[in-house]
Amino acid sequence: MRRSRTRMAGTALALLAVVGLAACSTGAEGGAEQDAPPVAKVSASVEAKAKDVPVREPITIQAKQGELTEAKLTNEQGKEVEGELAADKASWTSSEPLGYGTTYEYTAKAKGNDGKAVPLEGSFSTIEPSSVVRATLNPTDDQTVGVAMPISVKFEQPIEDKAAAEKALTVETSNDVEGSWAWLHDQQVDWRPKEYWPEHTKVNVSAKLYGVNYGGGAYGKTDVTTKFEIGRNQVVKINTPDHEMKVFEDGNQVTSYPASNGKDADPNLNTPNGTFIVMAKEEVGNFSNPQYGYTDVMKKWAVRFSNHGEFIHENEENAANIGVANTSHGCVNLFEADANEYFHGALIGDPVEVTGSQTTMEAKYEVYDWLIPWEQWQTMSEL
Q1: Among the record's GO biological process terms, what is one (predicted)?
Q2: d(Cα 151, Cα 225) in Å, to the nearest integer?
Q3: Domains in the chain and their CATH numbers?
Q4: N or C terminus: which one in the chain shows less Cβ crowding within 10 Å?
C-alpha cells in the first residue's frame, strides 16, 4: 500500500510539470499578441502594374483604420503630380490630368490607430493613343458677335465616337437660352439657340476633350474654352423683288438701302432664300469670276454672308439698277455710301434673312446652321 502511494505521488508531480509547461506556453502566446500586425490598410485606386489607365480619371490613395502620413504620385522624370490630401487625412486624390503613354509611381504611408506605419508602393502606365486629335472653338475669346452666331467645334480628323466628344462639351449662358448641339459632319459639331440669342448674353463654352476616347485609337489632344458676348439685336431683311435691304434693331426697322440683287431670270444667279449670317468683312474685296468673263473686279465694303459666294457690297458700276432691278450675280449691290454705313455697323454673326427669290439655298455652304429647321437640328445631336 505504501509503495502504491509513492507511485501516485510521482504521477501528481508529472501532472504539475505538465501544468507548468502549459503556463509557459500561455506566456509565449501573450508575447505574440503584442507583435500583432498593423491595423491600418492603405490602397490605391489603380492596381500595381496596371496598363492603359485613363488619363482623365483621378488617382486616389486611401487609408482605412488610420490616416495618411505620406502620399505622392510621380512621373518618369520624378515630377510630382498635383493632388490634395483630404481634411481627415484618409485619402489623397490627384488634381491634374495624367500624360499619355507615361509610367507613374505611387508611394504612401498610413499610420494606424495602433501607432504602426504601413507603406504602399506601386506603378502603372497610361493609355498610348495611336493619334491625338486637335480641336478648335469659334467664336474665340472676348468677341462681341451677332444674335445668330453659332458655336462651332471643329476637329482635325473624323470622329468615330461622336457621343463621347459631345458629352465633353458644355455651354453656360447668362440668360436662359434653349439650344442644342448638332453634328454637321464627322469633323464639326455646332451649337445654336432655337431662336436668335437674347442680346447682351454672356456665353462660356468648355470643351474638355483631353483624354476623350474618340474611337479607333484616337484621343483628344487638349481642352479648349472660349467666352464671348452677344451684341445688340440687328437683323437684315431682303425681299428680293423689293430691290431694298432693310435693317432692323430689336424688331424695329431703323434704316433701309436701295439694292440690286441676283438676276431673277437665272436661278443660278439668284440671291437665294434662307437665313444666313455675316461671316466676314473686307474693306476691299476681289470679286473676279472668270467663269462669267470678268477679272480684277474690286469692290468696297464687302460683307460675306455665305460661302456659296454671296456678299453685301458697293457697286457703283451698277448704280442705274440699284433700287430698280435685280442684275447682280447673286450679291446684294448697294451705293457706296450705304455700303460703307452698313459695313461699319455690322457684326460677325448678324442674321441676314433673304426671301422672295426663285431659289432656296441648300444646307451645304457655310454657314448654314439656320437653314436647318429646329426639329431636324435636334435630331443631329448624338446625345
Answers
A1: peptidoglycan-protein cross-linking
A2: 11
A3: 41-126 (2.60.40.3780), 134-231 (2.60.40.3710), 234-370 (2.40.440.10)
A4: N
